Rtf2 (Candida metapsilosis), 249 residues
Amino acid sequence: MGNDGGTIAKRQDILSLHNSKSTFTSFAEDKGESKEQILLQSCALSGLPLYKNNPIVGDFKGKLYIKEKILQYILDCKLDKLKIQLQFQHLKSLKDLRTVKITWDVINDIAHFQCPVTKELDNKTSYSYLRSCGCVMSYRLLKELKKSLKAGDTGDQIEANCPVCNQEFTFDYDLVIINPSNKSDYSEFNEENYKYLKNVLHLSHAKEPLKKKRKKSEGDDADEDKDDLIRKRKIDIDDGLEVEKRIRT
Ligand SMILES: [Zn+2]
């Protein structure tokens, strides 16, 4: 999975974290935290710890931010286009952000992500959140839930209830894998689901209606997009690796 783009972005993330917020990073490093965990626990824009900096928001790429910081960034970019940063250029308004609910467990002075259902900590699993309710939980938990539901379901879109708050959601397009270090299979998964949400359902990441594009051949294009996406989704996307293989071949 050696994705060059991903590696570069990861390096930049870590470097900026080191340069600007060395206090939190070095403290966490001293406590034995891995780079991956530190990135997960930090705002993707400011590098500040997410813990006790509520509200926290997430984007469709699986990056988490301190809401205040990312809103300030969006505002700054509206006033001065030169401030737009490549990795955040998809963030233009609140419609591109979803408030998320993280469960924390403080161990040895470090606040860790904890899955409210499986109780796994952030060194044991990848995390995901649901676009519908914003609950953050173990990605493995949702993968297993999907597998168990799929047995009795023939359709592509599987309805389920959030294991944390019980609100209804739909696999896969409500599922965002939190991806602090740009893993390419997670990136593909999140992009695919967002494309479906945007092009087929005409919804923003925060599930608000999008304004329709004024295009001459809109009908034809939209149908084509839709067919293409539905065809793509027919192939099982349980496993991010499969998505990656498919795209590469
Ligand atoms: Zn929920």
